[in-house]
Amino acid sequence: MKKKVVLLGSTGSIGKQVLDVIDWNRDKYEIMGLSANTNIELLRQQIHKYRPEKVAVVDESKGRKLKRLLDGKTEVLIGNEGMEDIIDERADIIFISVVGITALKPVIKSIKLGKRIALANKEAIVTAGGIIKKLQREHNGEIIPVDSEHCAIFQCIRQEKQGNVERLILTASGGPFFGKTTKELMTVSVEEALKHPNWSMGKKITIDSATLMNKGLEIIEASWLFGVPWNKIDVVIHPQSIIHSMVEYIDKSIIAQLGVSDMRLPISFALGYPDRKINRVKRLDLVEVGKLEFFKPDRTTFKALDYAYKALQIGGTMPTVLNAANEVAVDLFLKRKIKFTEIYEIIEGQMKRHVPVFNPSIEDIINIDRQIRNNLL
Ligand code: MN3
Predict the structure, then answer these.
(1) How confident is the model at residue 190 (pLDDT cuts 50, 70, 90)?
(2) Gap from CA of 218 to ligand 1 centroid (Å)
(3) d(CA 368, CA 375)
(4) If you measure from the C-alpha of residue 137 to the centroid of ligand 1, how many angstroms do you get, rounded to a whole number?
(5) How many Å is the Cα radius of gyration of the chain?
(6) Beta strand ranges found along 73-164 (DSSP E)
(7) How far is the CA of 150 from the centre of ligand 1 (A)?
(8) Is the peptide bond before 274 cis (omega within 30 degrees of 0)?
(9) What 8-state DSSP symbol labels residue 377?
């Protein structure tokens, strides 16, 4: 029996790579639903190839346009509600590869169905980790992280008792600005920030890698996914991006997961788990890599790590503020309206002003997210 997959965000960077992996295993997976934000040209090609029952287009006018272009065999749903509506209880795997907090409601719906979520989105778990984990326990759902670091930790931790974990060690490439000073960072351009040394990803996450906010969000993500407190999560700069993360145990033994920097590896794992699927990812040649280096992150220059630890330590809605302020700031930077270093200033300013709500509901999180965006308009 083929596994039925609903893929949210099929036209984005991760979504396209999910379809690559599915192409390698067409006898094992079938696509039930797809969603896109605005790229209906690519979505139309995907519909033609995979013949899903339903698709969703978040942009309303693009959605209506797509409806007119199709033959009527595929149902087209519109808006954020449409994206939620294609999550079907007959699906085996809900693959969530949309960027940003818009993934929150789809994640909540999927986890309530008790399904496997292959989670490539960070923001939902960063802002609502407590709620998601509680629902996961209640509904017996399954979350397989696709973020390469968390997928690595998931693999390192599989057979181990929670109590034996001493700390998680997240690796970071350091991004394009590793080694730069604050003064140098003030004048970097959008083009320079978009040049990631190892990974090919969407724009938002590439800027987050340059500021180290990506790693900051990943600290919070790891804390919720693996139930490990902030003071037991470390970050080490590893420019080769070969070790995707590590777990240290109480006996000082460290287990690491290694592989080439190709997102199709964690995607393949998340689709196949607990099985492993043969794929076309390049084999890691350690001799060719030659050396693996590790450095301490510069937390004075790249302040994002400290903001994330702080947000996680405070808890409640503080991670929501961190995330929303960062999303807006990155967008402003990409539009060339602010300097790179102002991303940090915006985040710090919003966090300082915020009085956190503890044990927030989904509505609290959505309201505070909106409030932060309004503050910054
Ligand atoms: Mn990552």
Answers:
(1) very high
(2) 7
(3) 10
(4) 25
(5) 20
(6) 75-78, 93-96, 116-119, 142-145
(7) 7
(8) yes
(9) -
The rounded Å distance from CA 67 to ligand 1 centre is: 35
Residue for token pair 């003030």: 186
Tell me the CATH number for domain 3-145: 3.40.50.720
Query: How far does the centroid of ligand 1 lie from the alpha carbon of residue 54, in Å?
Result: 30
- Cβ distance 54 to 75 under 8 Å? yes
* DSSP state letter for 168: E
Q: Are strands 254-258 and 233-237 parallel, antiparallel or unpaired?
A: unpaired
Element (H, E) at 167: strand 165-172
Evaluate if residue 352 carries a pLDDT over 90. yes
Instruction: State the DSSP string of 294-319.
Output: -B---TTTSTHHHHHHHHHHH-TTHH
Whole-number pLDDT of residue 72: 82
Question: Hey, what are 89's tokens?
Answer: 């209880």
SS percent in the chain: helix, strand, coil, step 5: 50, 15, 35
User: Tokens at residue 136, please?
Assistant: 């996961």
Structural domain boundaries in the chain: 3-145, 150-261+283-314
Each residue's pLDDT tens digit, 84-104: 999 999 999 999 999 889 999
Q: Which residues, chain by chain, have CB under 5 Å from ion ligand 1? A: 147-149
In the reported structure, the alpha carbon of residue 244 is separated from the centroid of ligand 1 by a whole-number distance in angstroms of 8
Mean pLDDT along residues 52-62: 98
Distance of CA 71 to the CA centre of its chain: 34
Instruction: Please give the distance, rounded to the nearest whole angstrom, from the Cα atom of residue 344 to the centre of ligand 1.
Output: 20
Tokens of 339: 């300097």
Question: What sign does the dihedral 254-304-97-107 (CA atoms) show?
Answer: positive
SS3 113: coil
Per-residue pLDDT of 230-257, as tens digits, reads 999 999 999 999 999 999 999 999 999 9
With a cut of 70, say whether residue 200 has pLDDT above it.
Answer: no
